[in-house]
Amino acid sequence: MRDIPVIEVEDLRKTYASGFDALKGVSLEINQGEIFALLGPNGAGKTTLINIICGIVDKTSGAIRINGYDNVVDFRKARAQIGLVPQELSTETFESVGATVSFSRGLFGK
């Protein structure tokens, strides 16, 4: 039996009102214990992808599951699985990573 991926994205698409396609059929699967890096130039869709996974931005189409929870149908359960530290967040210089993530989870609903 296969383990449920921590994050599963299937054929994710995002088209903005301007007609710009930020994401064109992105699919990925991240399993527990894996280290995953999201790399690309400015405008490649990295932030859009993260924001859609976290439920901050609406997708145009596709499916996202967090620990098996659909991020639309089971929004609260999916969202409770995520700890997001936004790039704009300022913290104390000597704050621990754990404290920063804990603080950001409080900002975003957990």
Distance between the termini: 31 Å
Order of helix and strand elements from N to C terminus:
EEHEEHH
- Main sheet specs: 4 strands, antiparallel
* Structural class by SSE content: alpha+beta
CATH architecture of the domain at 7-82: 3-Layer(aba) Sandwich
Helix content: 10-25%
Beta-strand residue fraction = 15-25%
**How would you classify the quaternary structure?**
single chain
GO molecular function, one term: ATP hydrolysis activity
Organism: marine metagenome
Keywords: ATP-binding, Nucleotide-binding, Transport
Protein name: ABC transporter domain-containing protein
Structure characterization notes:
By secondary structure, this protein is α+β, with helices and mostly antiparallel strands. The chain has a domain at 7-82: P-loop containing nucleotide triphosphate hydrolases (Rossmann fold, 3-Layer(aba) Sandwich). Helices cover 22% and strands 25% of the residues. The protein has helices at 46-53, 75-79, 97-107, and strands spanning 7-15, 21-30, 61-66, 69-70. The longest helix has 11 residues, at 97-107. The mean pLDDT is 86.
Structure keywords:
about 110 residues; alpha+beta; Rossmann fold; four-stranded antiparallel β-sheet; 3 helices
Write the layout of secondary structure elements.
Blueprint: E1 7-15, E2 21-30, H1 46-53, E3 61-66, E4 69-70, H2 75-79, H3 97-107
Antiparallel strand pairs: 1-2, 1-3, 3-4
Keywords: ATP-binding, Nucleotide-binding, Transport
GO molecular function: ATP binding; ATP hydrolysis activity
Pfam family, one: ABC_tran
